[in-house]
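Q: Second attempt. The first request was missing the SMILES, so the protein and magnesium ion are both included now.
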Amino acid sequence: MAKKRISSGIDGLDGMIEGGFIEGQILLLAGNAGAGKTTFLTQFIHNGAVRYGESGMFVSFEEPKELLFENMQRYGWDLAALEKKNKAVFLEYPTQDVEHFLSHENIIRDTIEENNIKRVAIDTITSYALIYETEYKRRQEVARLLNKLRKWGCTIMMSSESYMSDREYKIRFGMDSLCDGLIYLYNIREAENRVRALEVMKLRGTNHAQRIVPLRFTEKGIVVYPNEHVFESGRIYKRKD
Ligand SMILES: Nc1ncnc2c1ncn2[C@@H]1O[C@H](COP(=O)(O)OP(=O)(O)OP(=O)(O)O)[C@@H](O)[C@H]1O
Ligand SMILES: [Mg+2]
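A: Got both inputs this time. The predicted holo structure:
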């Protein structure tokens, strides 16, 4: 039987991934500073709740909740109202509190069960990993966290602050193999401009699009355009010609 898929909540993306993510998968959203990671994750949670009636949880290791609510208002997303109606839970762990996240695991699991939460967003896994001092320990702790998250039974999307090397994102802490899916958000420099784009790099169990496609911020959030070219010339960024 075909596995149940859940919509990404991003207009244009579901058609590139056989209709959505397989329920219960852990997905990594990689991008550099300002690539749109927080917006993407918020949209995943907001549209999941509003369009599909699936409750969500947003765990922020970055922006304080109030600031997130304020920043996302411009897309017409009333996150405070969602929270009031128990359609979404927003948790914030400022840098000095990140280590408390795992010790709250039981409370978080209870919240997930009580609210029938289907989607979880974590912004960013990089901030989580960096509380550990060595690269070895970071890998170990990220793997441990992912093991725990899998048991929650939710579809989980985590963002990762990534940098480019030789035109490819470097994914830290071994997360490229630990996660079921990898989505890249690009903010590519082309002469004096920057062009935004998205790529589905890997998605287990899914015959996904292989193209890098344009991404734009609209009044309703992020939209991707699978039938358009990233550059007017039609040249695809990754091709080394
Ligand atoms: N309405 C808009 N139109 C175009 N670009 C926008 C709009 N709103 C935000 N942006 C761009 O998106 C960026 C913020 O998006 P977001 O916070 O989702 O990115 P991020 O990858 O989480 O960034 P950070 O690295 O700061 O966490 C802004 O810095 C700006 O470049
Ligand atoms: Mg962010």
